Amino acid sequence: MILAAEIECLIYDAQSLKEKRSVLQRIITRLRNQFNISIAEVDHQNVWQRTKIKIVTVSSSKNIAEQEFQKALTLIDSFPEIERTVTHVDWL
């Protein structure tokens, strides 16, 4: 099973692209190190308080993929400097 999700987020405290990328890099690094997922920023690269990231995980079981995805969302939500606004999930 392949789970792909697009997540739109707001970064309220970012006052520049450099600050935004610093926050995103910290989150992306932690997600890659802790979970079996691929992650990348796919939209709003030149907007300093908004981002869209895509997370993809591949597993032999739908339940395992869903658990991994939920853990990743929990980690994203644990960062106070970023707020998840819209999440679209697709099963492939």
**What structural class results from the helix and strand content?**
alpha+beta
Low-confidence stretches: none
- What is the string of helix and strand elements? EHEEHE
Distance between the termini: 7 Å
Pfam family, one: DUF503
InterPro entries: DUF503 (IPR007546), TT1725-like_sf (IPR036746)
Organism: Pallidibacillus pasinlerensis
Protein name: DUF503 family protein
Describe the structure.
This is DUF503 family protein. The protein has helices at residues 17-34, 62-78; strands at 2-10, 38-43, 50-58, 83-91. By secondary structure, it is of the alpha+beta class. A 4-stranded antiparallel β-sheet has the order 2-3-1-4. The longest helix has 18 residues, at 17-34. The relative contact order is 0.34.
Label this structure with key terms.
four-stranded antiparallel β-sheet; elongated; alpha+beta; 2 helices; 92 residues
Offer a concise description of the structure.
It comes from Pallidibacillus pasinlerensis. The longest helix is centred in the first third of the chain and has 18 residues.
